[in-house]
Amino acid sequence: MFRTFVMAAAIITLPVLSPSVLLGQQAPPSTQGQHRTLPRPTNLQVLPKDISTEDLLKVMHGFTQQLGVRCTFCHAEDATTHHPDFASDAKPQKNSARIMMRMTHEINTKYLAQIQDPDAMPEMKTVSCGTCHRGHSMPEIFTPPEQHEAPAKS
User: Fold this and answer.
1) Domain contains 79
2) Domain that holds residue 85
3) pTM of the model
4) How many domains does the chain have?
């Protein structure tokens, strides 16, 4: 169920992005008919272990957009190559992201799935990182608009 949710969310709501952009590298020169092979993801603890590299990149790109961050916000940088070490758990933000992924999954499957509103589109009954973060690494404090009192009826 979680895998289906993650895959659907990634494919439906996130734009496709070239893997080279997420890895912080320049795109390789065009090689007609040849495809660049990326290594299989490792150390996946929340996302499905058999997620394709393409789908994983879509999910990660969604995180960067919804939080307004780059890969190295959650992923430690390799001191030698200066590229993200995606398997490393050195940064606490990566564990926070895992906790938040589990939280949004539970909210969506346990609570919002029970909402029976025929007028609501599926994305209206789904929370994501962007629901709270709105493009910022930390959620913004909600300040309700000032309420104007209705005129008294005579």
Assistant:
1) yes
2) 2-22+45-115+125-133
3) 0.71
4) 1
